[in-house]
Structure formats: structure tokens, C-alpha cells
Design brief:
Elements lengths: L11 H4 L2 H13 L4 H8 L3 H10 L5 H11 L3 H4 L13 H11 L3 H25 L1
Length: 131
């Protein structure tokens, strides 16, 4: 019986490709994270993050999921597959902040929302006027 999926064979060009490092660097910067901040989020050293970005080598498989979560992307996107439609979730520092706010009592969350809503509304109106 034939397997219902195609078997991928190891291809040296896939594992080490400068585009991998550039993609990782671009995603990290889009999430407004430094190498140290990303490393802390995924439980690695900043030198590993720098190595992956400069060498083009892919991170180990056990690092891919935490890294994708920290960057608010899918593992497939991290590996270079086409980007799925936007999830609407905040990324990077914003995601960390909202996760922390989510752990606060409801009254404190409401106070934070009362502060943020006028600011966000003003920013959006300013962007619409600029367009």
C-alpha cells in the first residue's frame, strides 16, 4: 500500500539558504522584537537567533513552533510558505502586552481599555486623513 502523502527527502539547499535568515530577520523586525527579546521568548540564546539570521540555517524543529508563536506567524510562513490570510491578532510586543492585560482583573482591564480606546481612535483617524 502506498503512503497517502509524498515523502520529502533531505535537500541541502533547503536547510541552508540565505533567504531563510532574511525571512527570519524580517519577521522578527515586523514583530518589533530584538534578537535578545525573541531569544528570551523562545528559550534560546541571542547568539542562536543571530546565527540563524546570518547563516540562513533553519532553527531546530523544536524551536519552530515557539518561534512562530512569538512572531505571530504560522510555522509554514516561518519556513517560507505563502502567507495565510491575516488573523487580526497583535504581534510581538503588542501580543505580549495584551496577554498580560488579559490576566488582570476585569476592572483593571476596563481602565486600560478606557485609556487606550481614545488613543487608538485618534491614531486611526489620523491615518485616514493622511491617506
Amino acid at each position: 500500500m502506498q503512503a497517502p502523502f509524498s515523502i520529502l527527502t533531505y535537500t541541502p539547499g533547503i536547510m541552508k539558504n540565505p533567504a531563510n535568515g532574511e525571512r527570519l530577520k524580517t519577521l522578527r523586525k515586523a514583530a518589533s522584537l530584538s534578537q535578545r527579546e525573541l531569544a528570551t521568548l523562545i528559550g534560546e540564546t541571542h547568539t542562536n537567533v543571530a546565527y540563524w539570521e546570518t547563516s540562513g540555517n533553519l532553527p531546530r524543529s523544536d524551536v519552530l513552533l515557539p518561534m512562530a508563536q512569538a512572531l505571530a506567524v504560522t510555522v509554514e510562513e516561518l519556513l517560507g510558505a505563502a502567507k495565510p490570510k491575516a488573523s487580526g491578532k497583535p504581534a510581538g510586543k503588542a501580543r505580549q502586552l495584551f496577554a498580560a492585560v488579559n490576566k488582570l482583573p476585569r476592572r483593571q482591564q476596563e481602565k486600560i481599555f478606557d485609556l487606550l480606546q481614545p488613543f487608538v481612535r485618534d491614531q486611526l483617524q489620523g491615518q485616514q486623513k493622511a491617506s
